[in-house]
């Protein structure tokens, strides 16, 4: 039986414009899970270039990698600095309630 070749999918390779980045982050925010949100923000930052994000935010590249991972727990000021460097912003919308 032939083995199938499996390659790891990296979302950062597909986040090549602000609209895709915004949609990806929006989907992560809808999950309401801090680990997913941090990881998605990390994917977006890697897509733009973590070195450039570090320069624009004044934060260390290594600390950004750590904070913007599924295990990371970035504070709000870090999130806002990264979003600004990415040309994105957070916005609030009413929760969509489902009816039973």
Structure description:
This protein is mainly alpha-helical and 100 residues long. The protein has one domain (16-86). 54% of the residues lie in helices and 0% in strands. Helix 1 packs antiparallel against helix 2. The radius of gyration is 15 Å and the shape is globular. The chain starts with 17 loop residues before the first helix and ends in a 14-residue tail after the last helix. The mean pLDDT is 92.
Portion in helices = 40-55%
Largest sheet: none
Q: What is the helix tally?
A: 5
Which band does the percent of strand residues land in? under 5%
β-strand number: 0
Shape: globular
Notable characteristics:
100 residues; globular; 0% strand; 5 helices; mainly alpha
What's the helix and strand layout?
Elements: H1 18-30, H2 34-48, H3 50-57, H4 61-67, H5 76-86
Helix pairs in contact: 1-2, 2-5, 3-5
Summarize the structure.
The chain has 100 residues and is mainly alpha-helical. It is built from five helices and no strands.
């Amino acid at each position: 039986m032939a083995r199938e070749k499996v390659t790891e999918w990296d979302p950062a390779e597909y986040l090549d414009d602000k609209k895709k980045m915004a949609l990806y982050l929006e989907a992560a925010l809808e999950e309401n899970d801090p680990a997913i949100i941090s990881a998605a923000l990390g994917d977006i930052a890697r897509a733009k270039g973590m070195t450039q994000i570090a320069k624009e935010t004044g934060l260390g590249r290594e600390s950004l990698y750590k904070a913007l991972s599924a295990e990371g727990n970035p504070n709000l000021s870090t999130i806002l600095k990264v979003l600004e460097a990415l040309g994105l912003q957070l916005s609030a919308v009413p929760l969509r309630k489902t009816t039973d």
